[in-house]
Amino acid sequence: MTLLRRLLFGAVAGLPGGAIVAAVTKPPLLPWAAHTLVLGAVLGLLFGGHRQSNGSAFCVGLLVGLLDWVTWTLTLVPLLHGDQPSWTIAVAVSRFPELVGAALSGAPAGLVLHALNTWLPPKPAPRRTKPHVVIVGGGFGGVGATRELDRLVGRGLDAHVTLISDSNSLLFTPLLVGVASSTVEARHVSAPVRAGLDHASFLHGRVVSIDTRTRDAYVCAGKDGTLRVPYDQLVLAVGGVPHFFDLPGVGEHAFPVKSVADATRLRDQVLGALERADLEPDPAEQARLLTFVVAGGGFAGTELVAELFDLVHDVLHFYPRLHGLRPRLVLVHSGERLLPELSPKLGLYAQRKLGGRGIEFRLGARVSKATAEDVTLDSGETIPTRTLAWTAGNRPNPLVRQVTQDPLVVDPTLRVPGIPGLWALGDCARIPDQAGGVHPPTAQHAIREGRAAARNIAAVIGGRRPVPFRFGGLGVLVSLGHRTAAGEIGGRQVSGFLAWILWRSVYLSKLPGAEKRLRVLADWTLDLVFPRDIALPTAGDRRA
C-alpha cells in the first residue's frame, strides 16, 4: 500500500466519526473538518498497511482518538491561545466531553479504514521477476529470518519471501518442560506464524528434498502432492531431531521432549503411571511404575527432572494408596557433573539442590539399552522403570544430510560454502564464532542468526557484501523446581529464588505476542494457588 493511498483512505475514514461529533457538538465547521482530516490521515499513515480484525481496528481507532485528545485538546489548543498546557486530573476532567468526542471520532475511523482496506484492496503490482527467498523451518531461527525479511520488504526490499514449515505455529521450546509437568497449557506455548507476517507468505508443508543445482525445493503439502518451489536464496533452519544412537530399545521406549505432542505424551505417561500404581497389588511392579528416569544432564534434562519431581510430589496426595511410598526420580548423565554449560560452582549448586530433595544421580554413566520394563546403563546397572525421558542427544534434521554433510558447516556470514544461494543456521548448522569454536544451539542465538541471515540476504540482493555473524550471548538460566533456579547473566552468577524470578521474567518477555504472555502468566499464577491438573484424555479423546 502506497503512502498516498494510506493518507487518502485515512482522511476518508475520519469523516464519518467527525460528522457524528460535529452534529452533536456544533464546532466551527472549517477548523473541525481540517482537524478530522488530519486525525484520519495520521490513522491511515500509521496503521493503514496492517492486517487487522474488526476488534483490533476499533481499538486502534480508539487509541488514536485518545492520543488526539491528549495532543490537540490538552496540549496544542492551550498553546495556540497563549496558555501553558496542563495535564492535571482537574483539567482532564474538565475536558471530558472532548475526550468522548475524540473517542467517537477515532473508533469509527478505525472501522471505516479497515472496511476500505478490505473492500478496496490495492491492485497487484505489474508482474515482474523478483528474487524469491525461501526459508525452510518454522523454529526460532526460521521465523526470526522470515520476520526480518518481512520487515525489510516493507521498507523496500524487492523480493518475494516464503516460509515453509510443517507446523503453522512457532513453538516456544523452553516451556515444553512446563507442559510436561502440567504447569502450562499446551496451547499457550506456541503462536501462529501467519499472524506475524505482513508481506511474506507461508506454505504449510514438509520439504522432502532440495535440488541445489536447479535451486528447487520439493514440498509435500497435503492433498496437493509434491510441489516444486523454485528459489533464488534458501535458508535451512530445520533444527534437530532426537538422536538415540541406535541403542537397543531406546527409540521405541524413550519419551523425547521436542514438541508439544512429545511433552503431552510424557505428562500423560507420568500421570498414567501414578494411576496404575494406585491400583497395582504387586509391590515390585508398583515400584517400577513409581520410578522415572531422565537421560541427559544438560539444561533440558535438569529442568525436566526437577519439574517432574515437583509434578509427582504435588499430586501424590490425590492417590491415598500411594501414601508412604517414595517415588524415585533418577537422572543419568555421561558427564562428571550436571550442567556443563554453567560454571562448576553453579553445576554443583544445582546438584546439591536436586539431590537434597531425593533425586538420584548416575553421573559418568550412559543408557545402553531400554525395554518396556527397565533401563540398563553402561555400568551394568539395571533400573526397573516404565518411564524413560530422553534429552541425551540431538542430531540435525535428516533433510540436511540430503543436501550436504551432516551437520552443515557454514562460513561466518551463514552461507554454505560451495553451494550458491544456500544459507543455514540454528541447530542444523555449525556456525563459527570469533574464538575458534562454534555458536551453541540456543534460542537466543537462533533468533539472532535468523535476523543476521535475513540482512545478509538483503545485502546480496542489493549488490552489497554480507557481514559476519557476531553474538556473545546474553547469559543462561536453568530452572531447578521448587521456585529456585541458577544461571549466569552478564558474567554474574545468580541462584535461588531471585534467579527463578529472572528465569520466569526472561521467558515471559520472550514469548511471541502479548496474548501468549498473558496466558502463560495466568497459568503460572494459578499454579501458585491450585494443584496441578491430573486429568488424562479418554480413549475417545485420543482417537479425536
Describe this structure in words.
This protein is α/β, with parallel strands linked by helices. 44% of the residues lie in helices and 19% in strands. Helix 6 links the parallel strand 1 (132-136) and strand 2. The protein contains 17 helices and 25 strands.
What's this entry about, in short?
With 544 residues, the chain is α/β, with parallel strands linked by helices. 44% of the residues lie in helices and 19% in strands. The protein has a 5-stranded parallel β-sheet, with helices on one face.
Topology at a glance:
Elements: H1 3-25, H2 29-47, H3 54-80, H4 89-94, H5 96-119, E1 132-136, H6 140-154, E2 160-165, E3 169-171, H7 176-180, E4 190-192, E5 201-204, E6 206-211, E7 216-220, E8 226-230, E9 233-236, E10 240-242, H8 250-253, E11 254-256, H9 260-279, H10 283-289, E12 291-295, H11 299-315, E13 328-333, H12 344-357, E14 360-363, E15 367-370, E16 374-377, E17 382-384, E18 387-390, E19 394-396, H13 398-403, E20 408-409, E21 422-424, E22 429-430, H14 443-461, E23 475-479, E24 485-489, E25 492-496, H15 497-510, H16 514-529, H17 539-543
Parallel strand pairs: 1-2, 1-9, 2-5, 9-21, 11-18, 12-13, 12-18, 13-14, 20-22
Antiparallel strand pairs: 3-4, 6-7, 7-8, 10-19, 15-16, 16-17, 23-24, 24-25
Helix pairs in contact: 1-2, 1-5, 2-3, 2-5, 3-5, 6-14, 9-10
Features:
5-stranded parallel β-sheet; 544 residues; 17 helices; 19% strand; 44% helix; alpha/beta
Biggest sheet overview:
5 strands, parallel
Total strand segments: 25
Ends: how far apart? 43 Å
Name the overall outline. Answer: globular
Strand content: 15-25%
Helix percent band: 40-55%
- Count of runs of 4 or more consecutive helical residues: 17
Mean pLDDT over the residues? 89
Uncertain residue ranges: none
The radius of gyration over CA amounts to: 28 Å
Adjacency order of strands in the biggest sheet:
5-2-1-9-21
Question: Which structural category fits the helices and strands?
Answer: alpha/beta
